[in-house]
Give the backbone structure.
Amino acid sequence: MSVKLAEINSVLEHSQCLLDENGVNTLFQRLATEITERCQFSNPVVLCVMTGAIVAVGQLLPKLNFPLEVDYIHATRYQGELVGSDLVWKQLPSIDLTDRTVIIIDDVLDEGITMAQVKSYCVEQGAKVCYLAVLVDKKIQQKKPAMADFVGYQADNEYLFGLGMDYKGYWRNLNGLYACPSNVDELLSQC
């Protein structure tokens, strides 16, 4: 599938900004404070769920002023698509998780399937405690198999991008949170 730059730019132009740069700064400071209060004495492993959480981890780490280790896991259901499918494991952590506190950081918790499986993996590897931290928790109509311990922003069930979340592989780099227009298909037919 080839994505036209006109489409990418048009989606941003017609999207709603849910959080601007000031809102983003406030979100990360609040998350860092909450994580610090609960985890500062536990020698945690911060586990970045690639690729979406790269911005969150990059913003949070300098605000977590306590000893920790960082690793990553790459598990995805989206692979550049707008709808998730089966989970694909691309990379497992290299740090031993046995008897460790693990803080799993991801960009968004929609259905909770990926986060539930990542948490299950960490527990199977011997983690004594697993906390889930997400930038965005989406309100959906069904029960989720995983709930976040730390949430930056509560959103409706709409397609979001920015802050590490992408629209067809683009706009992860935006320092803001955006919601795609509900008429995105109609809009894109004009590109």
